[in-house]
Predict the structure.
Amino acid sequence: MAEIPEHLLKRAQAARDAALAKKSGGGAEEEAAPKEGGSSVATAERPATAEATRPAAPPPSVGATGHTQRLLTVVKAGSIQDVKAVPTDKVHVWPHLLLVEFCAVLAMTAFLLVFSTFVNAPLLGAANYNLTPNPSKAPWYFLGLQELLKMFHPMVAGVAIPGVGLAGLAVAGYIDKNPSNKPEDRKFAIALFTFFIMFWAVLVIIGSFFRGEGFNYILPWRQGVHEIFDL
Amino acid sequence: MAKRLADKPRVSPGQRLSQRWDKMQGGQVWNSIFRPGSIFRKGYTDSPRNRSYVVMNSVLYHLHPVKVKRHAVKVSYTLCLGGLSFFLFIILTVTGIFLMFFYRPTDVQAWNDIKSLHTSVTFGLLVRNMHRWGAHLMVISVFLHMARVFYHGAYKAPREFNWVIGVILLTLTLLLSFTGYLLPWDQLALWAVTVGTNMIGYSPVVGSQVRFVLLGGVEIGPETLLRWYVLHVLMFPFVIVIFMAVHFWRVRKDGGISGPL
């Protein structure tokens, strides 16, 4: 049961006092009830008449069958109705979202088709166990790891760093307790994540384009990318 | 005879065609195929009710709710990256099925099959190109999708578990790409996978065992090719579809896409 708001209690008390004062003063006519904001403030004190007890006083709203309807209390919306869902601005998925998705899908298909028409996937000579290409490189998305392996002990570069990185990424939602999604409120998280992706991006770029024969550093514009990098 | 013909109102072929069309659209067969809300149904009008039915009564579209927040349809918010990753997966499935008709995962046949795909299969080279570039694009789009979600703070409660699913999906995408990398069985494939799987061997405790199971031996060989083929065309797609289903379902259960900022 919700608490009766303070201002309603005060108003009821004031009306009760007024009725009492009038009774002691002997005034018989009904006082014009203070009406604020229309009917919602017709209170329990509405039939406050000169008579001492309320049932004895014939209320003005006696029906044909003698039944009485009386306003017992006023409950303001919001005091007991706790509306959780706030109205949000929504649009129909069809056509607003499906049209956007359709266009995106069409554009992607067109791009892939055109690109695939003009650029062929690589196919080198048949696999040969006895002929190790120099340099030997992993697929591009693992070249960051390969780069790390060149720098650190395998346990650090191949296990610790990627393991901690991936695990840290997965639990980000449980570590970051900041509820805001506004960029200005989460500068540290954004800085950390930007550092994380830049770290891998730079390593992948170095591994892809700046490592040549024997996985030694080279400059791609001197040596040409074709001999050191393939997709 | 001539009079009777003249009495009949003349029906042009165009009118007759539209009458037929009307009759077919009103018929039982048509109505059983196109559920209420389908734009192909007779008397379709653009009403709020029909807009809702379009989504509710379509097996494909009902991945979506009937309505979404207005900011969610802004291309500048999502950049369509999640949807495009899913679409690339579908393209890769379709082109991959095509490639499977012409490919045998054995060390003597694999490379030759790819070679003849280039030279003697209609659209073989084009479809292989689409599969290859689509795969690289999917790795990129999944990665960018992750970055987008992070910068919007959408990994936070109540979406933190869906973010974990997303990280698993990223890993599975990389695994799918990596297992496919070996299949052409050319020098690029063999040695890239050699380098890649050597990294697995560094994992503590079980590293060398995992590597042994994955390769089907201590070195890459014909067994590896068969294993990775099965992983690539069957196991990882099966697993990733399950995780994708959970991922999409949780997007809606967690209150639709995040934001606005």
User: Anything to note?
Assistant: Residues 147 and 207 of chain A are 6 Å apart (CA to CA). The two ends of chain A are 69 Å apart (CA to CA). DSSP finds seven helices and one strand in chain A.
